[in-house]
Amino acid sequence: MNKVLLIDDDAELTMLLQEYLVEEGYDVATDTDGRAAIAAAAGNTVDIIVLDIMMPRMNGIEVLQRIRKLSQVPVLMLTARGDDVDRISGLNLGADDYVPKPCSPGELAARLRAILRRASQPAAGVSTDTIRVGQLVIHSGNRSAEWHGEILELTGTEFSLLEVLARSAGQLVSKQEISKRAFGKPLTPFDRRIDVHISSVRQKLGLREDGQSWIQSVRGQGYQLLVD
């Protein structure tokens, strides 16, 4: 049974979501203070955190920053509908996905299932083997990666994206194909999740000796992982 920590100061919404998720088979704990999420991440006591952005004491963006210094536990952000700034900030800081409020319990449950599936399984249609691309080593079986001999700290979503690009290293992979293989669903119009997550992976890989990014983009088409 997956353990979910739901952090939100909206008591009515929290109760509604908790009841629904429990019926869906989740073990759900709730809190109104983001510090509980930080403690859970540090103690590795939950499988996923649902984190509201607008909270007293410490907002969700600050909480997420602190979580990512401690853990790669999956985090789903609850954002104000139409607030692209908060959404992009959350994704840039390592959130796995977001759901705009007000949200339906069914939509939240679906997003949780998708994130947890990505965190525990290889990308769709790939085997549990080892991929080597230059100094990058992808271990699909345990979903870990090494870069120049060091562990590469990736969120579950970032790993899925990098795995897809590594399997087609040197080739352009369309954003639609990335979405299908990494997330198991087609890309929707105006969805910038892939772009933001790719930007985060780029930062973690750093630059090549020639100053270029290891992940090249072709505007409006897709991405390509360069090969030495």
UniProtKB/TrEMBL annotation:
A Gene Ontology molecular function term of the record: phosphorelay response regulator activity
Entry's Gene Ontology BP terms: regulation of DNA-templated transcription
Pfam families membership: Response_reg (PF00072), Trans_reg_C (PF00486)
UniProt modified residues of type 4-aspartylphosphate: 52
Residue ranges of DNA binding: 128-227
Protein species of origin: Rhizobium lentis
Entry GO CC: cytosol; protein-DNA complex
Domain (OmpR/PhoB-type): residue spans on this chain: 128-227
Keyword vocabulary terms for this entry: Cytoplasm, DNA-binding, Phosphoprotein, Transcription, Transcription regulation, Two-component regulatory system
Domain Response regulatory: residue ranges: 3-116
Listed InterPro entries: CheY-like_superfamily, OmpR/PhoB-type_DNA-bd, Sig_transdc_resp-reg_receiver, WalR-like, WH-like_DNA-bd_sf
Name of this protein: Two-component system OmpR family response regulator
Subcellular location as annotated: Cytoplasm
Coiled coil, from the record: none
